[in-house]
User: What shape does this take?
Amino acid sequence: MSTMQKTIEFRVEDKFSKITLAVGLIALLLGGFFGLIQLIERTPYMPSIVPPKTYYTILTGHGVLLALVWTTFFIMSLAVYIVSRELRVNINKTLLLLACILAIAGTFSAALAILLGKAAVLYTFYPPLTAHPLFYLGLVVLIIGSWIFAVAIFHAYLAWRKNKPSTSIPLATMGVLTTLIIWLEATPPLAFMVLKNLVPMSLHYTPVDVLESRTYFWYFGHPLVYFWIVPAVTLWYYALPKILGVPLFSEKMAKIALILFIVASTPVGLHHQFVDPGISNIYKLVQTIFTFIVATPSLLTAFNIVATLERAGRLRGGNGVLGWLKKLPWGDPVFAGMTLAFILFGFGGISGVVNASFILNYVVHNTLWVVGHFHITVGTATTLTFIAASYLLIPVLFKREVASMRLARAQVYLWFVAIAIMSTAMHIVGLYGVPRRTYDVTYGGQIPSSWIPLLLAVAVGGIVLVASGALYQAIVWRTIFGGKRLEDHIDVVNEATLASPTILDNLRIWIIVAVILIAVAYIPTFLEIYSRGLSLVPPLTPEGQILG
Amino acid sequence: MMSQEEVRLEYLWVIVVVSMLSAFIVSLVYVGVAKGFWTPEEVVTCDVKKLDEFIEPGIRELEPGVYEVNIVARRWFFEPGSTQPIVLENPRKIIFRITSADYIHGFEIVGTPVNVMIFPGYIAEVEWIPPKNLQGEFLVLCNEYCGIGHSNMRGILIIKR
Assistant: This one.
């Protein structure tokens, strides 16, 4: 094929990937540092180091910087690299530049509001708590930047599709497209709500309805989870077989999983609102059923990845029921990081099913259980996978050798051990009723003594996690600025050889199915809220001052 | 390429997954229909500036052992609960009517399944049938961030037998 011989330059694409990766890494650094302060403040017997206002400001920064900024920027970096290399196409420069500027400007604006102490509203920013307008406007600008980014990627994909009408979509690109489709399903109603309710509330002290705003937030809040998970899943599907030198066990099942993510990741937000009064049990049940449907692709992924690992282990001479495990390259930080993240993802799935069961959810809602859950999902399944992938991606983008692969190996294992300790303790102590998001976890010394040992275990895991994060930052910045230069140009993603397209490659059909399911799940919910009539309440600052 | 055996295993796994998830859904629906365990849904809207007209904080015994507990949550206490403990003697059934005067708050009775969000502008109604031999002092916590005084927001529920 001519495209194989034709050399394409990816200068702009790689520059974009480098900048977004660097922004993501800085967000990870700052967000992680905030985590350390929270840890010290929340641990029993430790002296109080910050006042409440600062604590909640830091907690807001931790959530926004890690859950939104680090993930979004890493995903943009990765997406551009995958799509440009796998499809061998250039991505529109103007769109990339615009997306980059808007995303960074939006992030900067929201981060400024947080760092100035004007947005202690946490990353869920439920009204009537009110932040500075820069916070909400920054979020909207970041979202608009991400839409332009999505347009740039789809533009490149459609250009490729025009040239190759009769081939299937390569798997990693399919993962990127799935991620972006989920994002495009999730964000428009959120942007609408922020502009309609929260910006006027912040600027003119306009009253708001809390149930309406929360429902819009969680409409976005759960597909956001799949926006984090699908890129990690894509990396497992793509990178693990490559590292092991075997084909993925079932590419077809991988594509089915991605399609299930497209159709079922959005109509599920009410499972975050089980204990919200004012929403009918029937609608909550419908979305519970969709939630169990969206558990399916994760379970399919679990089988597919384990089967791939087993195949590789047996080819390397592993025998017996579990003997093949020993033959896997556990010393390679990329393999180990992704596989350890994948293992913890399994446990995250189990606690996720508990959260999705509304009877059990009573016991865990707003407790530390939930915090344990998302530190093994977005905090490990996603973050540790991204970290492992960065040990491949940084050398390619910056043409530098990783400063120390031995330290990198230690770093990924430390992360795994840290999260295993911290999240297990958080899950258990959450079942005892320890709330999340609180400045003084001892409640003025009134807490049951059974909480204490587990809260100390949370602290031990947390300290190890901070150590792993610090080591990671040291390795990546040392690599970027002082790593040994790589002369050869290597690509870790190559143009794929492709079969004929099937119905699994017809994204249009699956987007239509997704829209229908969203309508089924959400039209009755919003009709219920609006037909009851909104109940408007005045905004307040976190200090308790009523505005307007 | 996958062998016949591998394809068979793949289909088997799909069947396992679908059956398992269906069993979860069926058991949730069963518990809901047969045992009446659902989620909080009942609300009436209210005017947050004229709360007195909609709710009077305090405990009313509707019939022997059946209590209606009317609670107003505000920054940063529960009335009753924080102002004075909620004391109930031999409760069979407790109906909480609960609202907020300002932010979103949470109402969690630690060690029980009572856990409901409290919205300003809405009065929620939730029922709890405590186990017959349950007694003692229970910590009541606000479990939703509600501004800088959040961690001070707690109360006490006492069940006497």
Summary: DSSP finds 15 helices and no strands in chain A. Confidence is low (pLDDT under 50) at residues 1-5 of chain A. Chain A touches chain B through 72 residues (CB under 8 Å).
